[in-house]
Amino acid sequence: MSTLKIREIQQQDNQQVKKVIRDVLIEMGVPKEGTAYEDKALEDMTAEYNAERKAYFVIEEDSKIIGCCGIGPLPGFETEICELQKMYFLPEARGRGLGAQMMETCLKFAKNQNYKKCYIETLPYMKDACKLYKKTGFKELEKPLGSTGHYNCTVWMIKDL
């Protein structure tokens, strides 16, 4: 029987998380520029999320990170709007309801931090992700919010918390 848990990132998770994110982006054919692939934060996610009103969660199964996602303030809208950041799952994590569990964990954290809305950027061909966001109550926007630097992400969504 496998052991599965969602928990906050720890220092020893950094390399596994970076690998999960980059492996999924490569699998999906995502451009390396203008996306999370080139984010400097990937070098030390623990340090990146060790700040007020930020958290990064991992899904660990049998000592292996199989999924991850974070919440942080949206640049330019820091007090009111958070951003669901770097949500990625390896193939073995998909189709098991783990995305919904991770969303619940992240959105609960966001509400506890008194954010009013949650924003996300993604790509149109990440269809399963888009379906999950819509199912969770995210609505599409016509243009991006904030300044994330992810200019290749062309689907923008927001949800009231």
TrEMBL record:
Taxonomically, which superkingdom? Bacteria
What InterPro entries is this protein classified in?
Acyl_CoA_acyltransferase, GNAT_dom, NAT_camello-type
> What does the record list as coiled-coil region(s)?
none
- UniProt keywords, alphabetically: Transferase
Q: Which SUPFAM superfamilies match?
A: Acyl-CoA N-acyltransferases (Nat)
A molecular-function term among this protein's GO annotations: N-acetyltransferase activity
Ranges for domain N-acetyltransferase come to 4-161
Keyword Zinc-finger appears in the UniProt entry: no
Keyword Transferase (UniProt): yes
What PANTHER family does the database record attribute to this sequence?
GNAT FAMILY N-ACETYLTRANSFERASE, LD18367P
Write the protein's name.
GNAT family N-acetyltransferase
